Amino acid sequence: MGARVGNMIFSSGIAGKDPATGELPADGAEQGRVAFQNLRTLLANGGATLEDVGRVTVFVKDESVREAINVEWLKCIPDPHDRPARHTLVHDLRGGMLLQLEVIAVVPDKPVAG
């Protein structure tokens, strides 16, 4: 789902597919919720959190899905002064996908015990 290079995490496309079942929800709101859950998991595995994300690219099947992403975006990143850069593109997603995320995050340096 991604790669850590040095102190940076680069994701592959993060879909709203349930990792336990492999199922892709039919509606955009649920796909958005699961996609952000999958994003949090990817970041945690690399030693980061949503606060460490510098850029998010959002691909949506059509403009109607944008609101589902916005709702989840505001839940996950409520502070308007501490949000990553975001770019949303309409893209011909396949296989029932209504949205997909790609992120770049910078893993914080751990303080040196002294």
Number of H/I helices = 2
Shape: globular
Helix content: 25-40%
Q: How far is it from the N-terminal to the C-terminal residue, by CA?
A: 35 Å
Strand-helix topology:
Blueprint: E1 2-5, E2 8-11, E3 14-15, H1 28-45, E4 53-60, H2 66-76, E5 85-90, E6 99-106
Parallel strand pairs: 4-5
Antiparallel strand pairs: 1-2, 2-6, 3-6, 4-6
Outline the structure in words.
It comes from Ramlibacter ginsenosidimutans. This is RidA family protein. One of its GO terms (cellular component) is cytosol. InterPro entries: RutC-like_sf, YjgF/YER057c/UK114. With 114 residues, this protein is α+β, with helices and mostly antiparallel strands. It has one domain (2-106): RutC-like (60s Ribosomal Protein L30, Chain: A, 2-Layer Sandwich). It has two helices and six strands. The protein has helices at residues 28-45, 66-76, and strands spanning 2-5, 8-11, 14-15, 53-60, 85-90, 99-106. Strands 1, 2, 3, 4, 5 and 6 form a six-stranded mixed sheet that branches. The chain is globular and about 50 Å long. The model has no long low-confidence stretch (mean pLDDT 93).
Key attributes of the depicted protein:
60s Ribosomal Protein L30, Chain: A, single chain, alpha+beta, 6 strands
Task: Write a brief caption for the model.
The chain is of the alpha+beta class and 114 residues long.
